[in-house]
Design a protein that fits this description.
Length: 125
């Protein structure tokens, strides 16, 4: 049976903080769409996973390490130089699509967290 305790809620909260941090990076890309030489940036969720695994010790071969990462530890990835004459690497349409998908994932995670919280309240009451 899956665990719906504090670990699941903590994981959802970390995922939502990552989405929030990524939104700020995407907004920076949109704001710099006309800046000559600007290279697009994005956050890598793998950076958070690496940070979460770094502080954990595996005590049994059958156990999977768990824990939560910190969105501030996310690796910022730089995109290539653009092919435009000003070498700007931002494709505004792609950035808006990425922002939309990121916002949708945040809403989905918030809905799951709300339902999980309601289940916990029901179990306690």
């Amino acid at each position: 049976m899956p665990s719906f305790g504090p670990e699941a809620m903590g994981a959802l909260q970390v995922a939502m903080r990552f989405r929030k941090a990524r939104e700020a990076v995407i907004a920076g890309n949109v704001a710099n769409a006309d800046t000559p030489g600007y290279r697009r940036r994005d956050l890598s969720f793998e950076g958070i996973l690496e940070g979460a695994r770094a502080g954990l010790a595996r005590t049994h071969a059958g156990h999977m390490p768990n824990g939560s990462g910190n969105p501030e530890q996310a690796r910022v990835e730089m995109g290539p130089r653009g092919t435009r004459p000003d070498a700007n690497g931002v494709d505004l349409d792609q950035e808006l699509l990425t922002a939309h998908r990121n916002a949708g994932a945040f809403v989905d995670q918030a809905n799951v967290l709300a339902r999980l919280s309601a289940l916990v309240r029901t179990a306690m009451g």
